Amino acid sequence: MFPKIPDRHKEGNPLVPTGLGVFYVLISVIYLFLLHYYYGVNFHQELSLQALTLAVCILFGGFMGLLDDWIDLRWRYKAFLPIVAALPLGVLRQGTPIMSTYFFGKIDFCKLSFWIVPGEIIFYFAVIPLIVTITTNAVNQLGGLNGLETICPSIVLIALMVVSNSETRILLFIPLITYLVLAFFNFQGKIFVGNTGSFAIGITIAAYALIANR
Question: ∠ at Cα 109 (157, 123), nearest 5°?
């Protein structure tokens, strides 16, 4: 059913099914769409919009990963694909345009301007795409190493859930459980999530961190 690639970390290089990250995308998106509907009809518009934004980001990420699995894009193109997945965050204005940095302290982009461009626009359409691109490519670099591309992002997701508020963390319940199941089989070398999974989970981490930044 799924294409198979050799596992070069095992003796004999057995063929292992790859691309199972599509299950993460499908289950997570369905769950988030249901949350979007539920909170929408119950007049919790902010959480409803957050669920929709995260769902669309995961869809974008999963599609780009699937595209890469399908036609094996070169790194020069692959590296910049996550910029597209960052568009929902900017268009729907998710995340607070205030950042705490190591060197410059707290930066409020609402109070800045770059020539005639408001700082808020820079945040949503330059800073956010940069964050999403770096995070997604960092996760994608772990691909092919049994367990690393699934366990490491899972640890990050758990940490993000712990530090975020009780309302927002509900967005990650089913996505995290789904990815932990995939991590269990990936660690044993029985499956690979492929670029579909690594792109989707990388974008999940970046998008959720920005959405939860309140």
Answer: 55
